[in-house]
Amino acid sequence: MDMWDHVAYCNMETGGVILRDERLKLRKYKAGLYADHGEVFPDAIAAALKKPGDGVIVDDPRGVAVALGRKLGTLSNNAVAPKRIAKKQEQRLPSETDLVAMLSNADDWDRVAKTEVEMAKSGQRIRARALAAEQLLAAKASSKKA
C-alpha cells in the first residue's frame, strides 16, 4: 500500500522484513495516552501535545481532536463501516411447552460420551437444554412445569 511513512511502530518480534526495508520511515510520536487512559484528561493531553513528534497514540481521539481545535463530527467524511449492517431480525422464542420439552429431554444425563462424535452430540444437547432454560427465564415462564 506504499504507506511506509505512516507507520509509528513495528513489533520487533514479527516485523522483521518490514523493519529492514529502506522505505520504512517510522513516525516519531509525541506520547501514548492509551495505557493509562490519559486521553480523557485535558492536562495529560496538553502535556503530550507539547512534546516533540508527529502524533499522539490514543484509543479515543476525541479529547486530542478538541485540544487541537477540531470540531467533532468533522474528523472524516468517510463512513466507518462502508457496508450496511443488516438489522438483526427479532427471534421468536419457542413456546413455553416446546422449551419445557427441550429442557426435559435429558435421558442421557447419566451416560458419559466416549468418542469425539458422541462428545459433540452430547455437548449440543447440553447447550440446547441450557438455551431452553435461559429462554424460559427470559420469557418469565411461571407454569409449574417451567
Tell me what the structure shows.
The structure is a single chain. By secondary structure, the protein is mostly helical. It folds into two domains: 4-67, no CATH class; 96-138. Helices cover 36% and strands 5% of the residues. It has five helices and two strands. Strands 1-2 form a two-stranded parallel ribbon. α2 links the parallel β1 (29-32) and β2 (55-57). α4 (96-104) runs antiparallel to α5 (116-138). The longest helix has 23 residues, at 116-138. The protein is elongated. The N and C termini lie far apart (59 Å).
Q: Sketch the major β-sheet.
A: 2 strands, parallel
Q: Calculate the mean pLDDT score and round it.
A: 81
- Could you state the order of secondary-structure elements as H and E? HEHEHHH
Please work out how many helical segments DSSP would assign.
Answer: 5
Report strand %: under 5%
State the total count of DSSP E strands: 2
Low-confidence stretches: none
The coarse overall form would be elongated
